[in-house]
Amino acid sequence: MTTAHSFTRHDITFPSGDSTCAGWLYLPTGVTSPPVVILGHGLGATREMRLDAFAERFAQAGIAAVAFTYRHFGDSGGHPRQILSIKRQLADWDAAIAYVKARPDIDRSRIAVWGSSFGGGHAITVASRHPELRAAVSQCPFTDGLASALALGPVASLRMTPVLARDMAARVRGKAPAMVPIASAPGSPALMNAPDALPGYQALQPTGTTFRNEVAARVIPTIATYRPGRAAKKVAMPILFCVSNTDSVTPPAQTLRYARTAPRGEIKRYDAGHFDFYTGETFEALVRDQIEFLTRQLHPAPASTP
Protein backbone atom coordinates (compact mmCIF):
# COMPACT_ATOMS: atom_id res chain seq x y z
CA MET A 1 0.00 0.00 0.00
CA THR A 2 1.29 3.47 -0.90
CA THR A 3 1.88 5.64 2.14
CA ALA A 4 1.62 9.40 2.54
CA HIS A 5 4.71 11.58 2.49
CA SER A 6 5.89 13.05 5.75
CA PHE A 7 6.61 16.77 5.59
CA THR A 8 8.17 19.71 7.39
CA ARG A 9 6.64 23.16 7.88
CA HIS A 10 8.75 26.31 7.82
CA ASP A 11 7.86 29.91 8.71
CA ILE A 12 8.66 32.18 5.77
CA THR A 13 8.39 35.82 4.72
CA PHE A 14 8.76 37.23 1.25
CA PRO A 15 8.84 40.82 -0.03
CA SER A 16 5.78 42.31 -1.67
CA GLY A 17 5.51 45.93 -2.65
CA ASP A 18 6.56 48.15 0.23
CA SER A 19 6.37 45.41 2.86
CA THR A 20 6.33 41.63 3.38
CA CYS A 21 3.91 38.70 3.45
CA ALA A 22 4.19 36.01 6.12
CA GLY A 23 3.55 32.41 5.26
CA TRP A 24 4.23 28.74 5.80
CA LEU A 25 6.20 26.49 3.47
CA TYR A 26 5.37 22.79 3.55
CA LEU A 27 8.03 20.50 2.06
CA PRO A 28 7.52 16.76 1.51
CA THR A 29 10.36 14.93 3.22
CA GLY A 30 12.99 13.33 0.99
CA VAL A 31 11.57 14.72 -2.28
CA THR A 32 13.97 16.53 -4.61
CA SER A 33 12.46 19.51 -6.45
CA PRO A 34 8.77 18.83 -5.73
CA PRO A 35 5.98 20.71 -7.50
CA VAL A 36 4.30 23.42 -5.43
CA VAL A 37 0.86 24.88 -4.89
CA ILE A 38 0.40 28.42 -3.51
CA LEU A 39 -2.64 28.96 -1.27
CA GLY A 40 -4.42 32.26 -0.59
CA HIS A 41 -7.53 32.84 1.53
CA GLY A 42 -10.77 34.76 1.36
CA LEU A 43 -12.13 38.12 2.44
CA GLY A 44 -10.00 39.44 5.31
CA ALA A 45 -9.06 35.90 6.35
CA THR A 46 -5.60 34.73 7.41
CA ARG A 47 -3.77 31.50 6.62
CA GLU A 48 -4.43 30.10 10.12
CA MET A 49 -8.08 29.74 9.16
CA ARG A 50 -7.76 26.20 7.74
CA LEU A 51 -5.34 26.85 4.87
CA ASP A 52 -2.96 24.69 6.90
CA ALA A 53 -5.39 21.77 6.69
CA PHE A 54 -5.35 21.84 2.88
CA ALA A 55 -1.59 22.50 2.67
CA GLU A 56 -0.80 19.53 4.93
CA ARG A 57 -2.79 17.17 2.70
CA PHE A 58 -1.09 18.47 -0.43
CA ALA A 59 2.33 17.97 1.20
CA GLN A 60 1.37 14.42 2.15
CA ALA A 61 0.61 13.87 -1.55
CA GLY A 62 4.15 14.96 -2.46
CA ILE A 63 3.27 18.53 -3.43
CA ALA A 64 5.05 21.37 -1.64
CA ALA A 65 2.72 24.12 -0.46
CA VAL A 66 3.00 27.81 0.40
CA ALA A 67 0.12 29.24 2.45
CA PHE A 68 0.40 33.00 2.90
CA THR A 69 -1.43 35.92 4.49
CA TYR A 70 -2.01 39.10 2.49
CA ARG A 71 -0.35 42.35 3.45
CA HIS A 72 -2.25 44.46 6.00
CA PHE A 73 -3.67 41.33 7.70
CA GLY A 74 -2.58 38.89 10.38
CA ASP A 75 1.17 38.75 10.95
CA SER A 76 2.07 40.10 7.51
CA GLY A 77 3.37 43.64 7.13
CA GLY A 78 1.62 46.67 5.72
CA HIS A 79 0.16 49.83 7.30
CA PRO A 80 -2.45 50.91 8.07
CA ARG A 81 -3.90 47.58 9.16
CA GLN A 82 -7.02 45.88 7.77
CA ILE A 83 -6.75 47.51 4.35
CA LEU A 84 -8.26 45.23 1.71
CA SER A 85 -6.82 46.31 -1.62
CA ILE A 86 -7.54 44.05 -4.59
CA LYS A 87 -4.56 45.50 -6.47
CA ARG A 88 -2.21 44.86 -3.53
CA GLN A 89 -3.53 41.35 -2.95
CA LEU A 90 -2.95 40.45 -6.59
CA ALA A 91 0.57 41.86 -6.22
CA ASP A 92 1.01 39.57 -3.18
CA TRP A 93 0.13 36.59 -5.38
CA ASP A 94 2.73 37.73 -7.93
CA ALA A 95 5.26 38.04 -5.10
CA ALA A 96 4.45 34.53 -3.83
CA ILE A 97 5.00 33.11 -7.32
CA ALA A 98 8.32 34.96 -7.57
CA TYR A 99 9.29 33.59 -4.16
CA VAL A 100 8.75 29.94 -5.08
CA LYS A 101 10.46 30.40 -8.45
CA ALA A 102 13.56 31.62 -6.61
CA ARG A 103 13.78 28.59 -4.29
CA PRO A 104 16.31 25.97 -5.42
CA ASP A 105 14.44 23.18 -3.60
CA ILE A 106 11.20 23.58 -5.64
CA ASP A 107 10.52 22.79 -9.29
CA ARG A 108 9.70 26.18 -10.78
CA SER A 109 8.21 24.54 -13.87
CA ARG A 110 5.43 22.86 -11.82
CA ILE A 111 3.60 25.63 -9.96
CA ALA A 112 -0.13 25.77 -9.21
CA VAL A 113 -2.28 28.34 -7.43
CA TRP A 114 -5.17 27.59 -5.07
CA GLY A 115 -7.59 30.19 -3.80
CA SER A 116 -10.75 30.05 -1.70
CA SER A 117 -13.70 32.46 -1.69
CA PHE A 118 -12.30 35.95 -2.46
CA GLY A 119 -8.97 34.21 -3.00
CA GLY A 120 -10.75 31.86 -5.40
CA GLY A 121 -11.52 34.88 -7.53
CA HIS A 122 -7.91 36.01 -7.26
CA ALA A 123 -6.76 32.54 -8.38
CA ILE A 124 -8.71 33.00 -11.63
CA THR A 125 -7.19 36.45 -12.21
CA VAL A 126 -3.66 35.27 -11.35
CA ALA A 127 -3.94 32.18 -13.55
CA SER A 128 -5.06 34.35 -16.47
CA ARG A 129 -1.97 36.53 -16.02
CA HIS A 130 0.59 33.75 -15.50
CA PRO A 131 0.46 31.30 -18.44
CA GLU A 132 3.59 29.59 -17.12
CA LEU A 133 1.59 28.06 -14.26
CA ARG A 134 0.73 24.39 -14.55
CA ALA A 135 -2.69 24.42 -12.85
CA ALA A 136 -5.15 26.38 -10.72
CA VAL A 137 -7.85 25.56 -8.16
CA SER A 138 -10.68 28.01 -7.50
CA GLN A 139 -12.73 26.99 -4.45
CA CYS A 140 -16.20 28.48 -3.76
CA PRO A 141 -14.90 31.47 -5.70
CA PHE A 142 -15.99 35.07 -5.61
CA THR A 143 -16.48 35.68 -9.32
CA ASP A 144 -18.77 38.69 -9.63
CA GLY A 145 -19.03 41.63 -7.26
CA LEU A 146 -22.41 42.72 -8.55
CA ALA A 147 -23.90 39.25 -8.02
CA SER A 148 -22.51 39.14 -4.48
CA ALA A 149 -23.81 42.64 -3.74
CA LEU A 150 -27.28 41.60 -4.88
CA ALA A 151 -27.04 38.56 -2.61
CA LEU A 152 -26.18 40.90 0.29
CA GLY A 153 -29.32 42.91 -0.39
CA PRO A 154 -29.84 46.62 -1.15
CA VAL A 155 -30.88 47.62 2.38
CA ALA A 156 -27.74 46.21 3.99
CA SER A 157 -25.63 47.76 1.23
CA LEU A 158 -27.15 51.19 1.79
CA ARG A 159 -26.50 50.95 5.52
CA MET A 160 -22.77 50.93 4.79
CA THR A 161 -22.87 54.25 2.94
CA PRO A 162 -22.18 56.46 6.02
CA VAL A 163 -19.13 54.44 7.15
CA LEU A 164 -17.84 54.41 3.58
CA ALA A 165 -18.07 58.21 3.49
CA ARG A 166 -16.24 58.45 6.83
CA ASP A 167 -13.47 56.16 5.62
CA MET A 168 -12.99 58.02 2.35
CA ALA A 169 -12.66 61.24 4.34
CA ALA A 170 -10.20 59.57 6.73
CA ARG A 171 -8.11 58.42 3.78
CA VAL A 172 -7.90 61.95 2.37
CA ARG A 173 -6.94 63.37 5.78
CA GLY A 174 -4.45 60.62 6.60
CA LYS A 175 -6.49 59.51 9.60
CA ALA A 176 -7.13 55.98 10.91
CA PRO A 177 -9.49 54.01 8.65
CA ALA A 178 -13.20 53.69 9.44
CA MET A 179 -14.02 50.00 9.64
CA VAL A 180 -16.92 47.84 8.53
CA PRO A 181 -17.50 44.25 9.75
CA ILE A 182 -16.50 41.48 7.37
CA ALA A 183 -19.25 39.18 8.64
CA SER A 184 -22.28 39.89 10.81
CA ALA A 185 -25.81 38.69 11.54
CA PRO A 186 -28.49 38.86 8.82
CA GLY A 187 -29.73 42.40 8.22
CA SER A 188 -26.67 44.00 9.82
CA PRO A 189 -24.29 46.14 7.77
CA ALA A 190 -21.26 44.05 6.77
CA LEU A 191 -19.50 42.73 3.69
CA MET A 192 -21.26 39.41 4.34
CA ASN A 193 -24.46 38.94 6.36
CA ALA A 194 -25.83 35.62 5.14
CA PRO A 195 -27.10 33.43 8.01
CA ASP A 196 -23.98 31.23 7.85
CA ALA A 197 -21.42 34.03 7.41
CA LEU A 198 -20.65 35.02 11.01
CA PRO A 199 -20.76 31.50 12.49
CA GLY A 200 -18.82 30.30 9.45
CA TYR A 201 -15.96 32.74 10.05
CA GLN A 202 -15.99 32.04 13.79
CA ALA A 203 -15.70 28.28 13.15
CA LEU A 204 -12.49 28.79 11.17
CA GLN A 205 -10.64 30.73 13.86
CA PRO A 206 -8.12 28.75 15.94
CA THR A 207 -7.09 29.73 19.44
CA GLY A 208 -4.89 32.83 19.34
CA THR A 209 -5.95 33.75 15.82
CA THR A 210 -4.68 36.96 14.21
CA PHE A 211 -8.02 37.45 12.44
CA ARG A 212 -9.98 40.64 13.01
CA ASN A 213 -13.59 40.81 11.85
CA GLU A 214 -13.30 44.20 10.18
CA VAL A 215 -11.80 45.93 7.17
CA ALA A 216 -11.50 49.53 6.04
CA ALA A 217 -14.76 50.52 4.38
CA ARG A 218 -12.97 52.02 1.35
CA VAL A 219 -12.90 48.57 -0.25
CA ILE A 220 -16.69 48.47 -0.76
CA PRO A 221 -16.80 50.15 -4.21
CA THR A 222 -13.93 48.04 -5.55
CA ILE A 223 -15.48 44.77 -4.37
CA ALA A 224 -18.73 45.64 -6.12
CA THR A 225 -16.91 46.18 -9.44
CA TYR A 226 -14.43 43.27 -9.18
CA ARG A 227 -15.48 40.53 -11.59
CA PRO A 228 -12.63 38.01 -11.72
CA GLY A 229 -14.89 35.39 -13.28
CA ARG A 230 -14.57 37.28 -16.56
CA ALA A 231 -10.92 36.22 -16.72
CA ALA A 232 -11.80 32.50 -16.73
CA LYS A 233 -11.92 32.45 -20.53
CA LYS A 234 -8.28 33.61 -20.56
CA VAL A 235 -6.97 30.85 -18.26
CA ALA A 236 -4.83 28.65 -20.52
CA MET A 237 -3.92 25.92 -18.03
CA PRO A 238 -6.26 23.35 -16.44
CA ILE A 239 -8.34 24.95 -13.68
CA LEU A 240 -10.60 23.16 -11.21
CA PHE A 241 -13.67 25.00 -9.95
CA CYS A 242 -15.11 23.64 -6.68
CA VAL A 243 -18.60 25.12 -6.42
CA SER A 244 -21.14 25.12 -3.58
CA ASN A 245 -24.66 24.42 -4.86
CA THR A 246 -26.12 26.43 -1.98
CA ASP A 247 -23.53 29.22 -1.72
CA SER A 248 -24.99 32.20 0.14
CA VAL A 249 -22.02 34.52 -0.48
CA THR A 250 -20.87 33.80 -4.03
CA PRO A 251 -23.99 32.82 -6.02
CA PRO A 252 -23.30 29.53 -7.83
CA ALA A 253 -25.30 30.25 -11.00
CA GLN A 254 -23.01 33.11 -11.99
CA THR A 255 -19.89 31.19 -10.94
CA LEU A 256 -20.89 28.24 -13.14
CA ARG A 257 -21.50 30.51 -16.12
CA TYR A 258 -17.97 31.87 -15.82
CA ALA A 259 -16.41 28.47 -15.07
CA ARG A 260 -17.81 27.01 -18.29
CA THR A 261 -15.89 29.61 -20.32
CA ALA A 262 -12.48 28.31 -19.14
CA PRO A 263 -10.91 26.44 -22.09
CA ARG A 264 -9.54 23.65 -19.86
CA GLY A 265 -11.86 24.05 -16.90
CA GLU A 266 -13.15 21.23 -14.72
CA ILE A 267 -16.13 21.71 -12.41
CA LYS A 268 -16.95 19.84 -9.21
CA ARG A 269 -20.17 20.66 -7.35
CA TYR A 270 -20.96 20.02 -3.70
CA ASP A 271 -24.20 20.04 -1.72
CA ALA A 272 -22.66 22.06 1.10
CA GLY A 273 -22.63 25.72 2.09
CA HIS A 274 -19.86 28.24 1.46
CA PHE A 275 -18.40 27.86 4.95
CA ASP A 276 -18.79 24.08 5.08
CA PHE A 277 -15.93 23.66 2.61
CA TYR A 278 -13.23 23.91 5.27
CA THR A 279 -14.21 21.22 7.75
CA GLY A 280 -15.75 17.78 8.19
CA GLU A 281 -16.93 15.48 5.42
CA THR A 282 -17.11 18.28 2.84
CA PHE A 283 -13.46 19.18 3.44
CA GLU A 284 -12.52 15.52 3.00
CA ALA A 285 -14.40 15.34 -0.31
CA LEU A 286 -12.89 18.59 -1.55
CA VAL A 287 -9.30 17.82 -0.65
CA ARG A 288 -9.60 14.35 -2.19
CA ASP A 289 -10.84 15.84 -5.48
CA GLN A 290 -8.21 18.58 -5.41
CA ILE A 291 -5.36 16.14 -4.78
CA GLU A 292 -6.55 13.97 -7.67
CA PHE A 293 -6.61 17.04 -9.95
CA LEU A 294 -3.26 18.44 -8.78
CA THR A 295 -1.60 15.03 -9.03
CA ARG A 296 -2.75 14.74 -12.65
CA GLN A 297 -1.37 18.18 -13.48
CA LEU A 298 1.78 18.37 -11.33
CA HIS A 299 2.96 14.73 -11.32
CA PRO A 300 4.41 14.60 -7.79
CA ALA A 301 6.72 11.73 -6.83
CA PRO A 302 4.77 8.95 -5.09
CA ALA A 303 5.54 8.09 -1.50
CA SER A 304 7.54 4.90 -0.98
CA THR A 305 5.65 1.64 -0.72
CA PRO A 306 6.46 -0.34 2.46
From TrEMBL:
Keywords: Hydrolase
InterPro entries, sorted: AB_hydrolase_fold, FrsA_esterase, Hydrolase_4
Ranges of residues in domain Serine aminopeptidase S33: 36-271
Source species, domain of life: Bacteria
GO MF entry, a single one: carboxylic ester hydrolase activity
Family annotation (PANTHER family): DIENELACTONE HYDROLASE DOMAIN-CONTAINING PROTEIN-RELATED, POLYKETIDE TRANSFERASE AF380
Family affiliation: Belongs to the AB hydrolase superfamily.
Name this polypeptide is given: Alpha/beta hydrolase
Species of provenance: Streptomyces botrytidirepellens
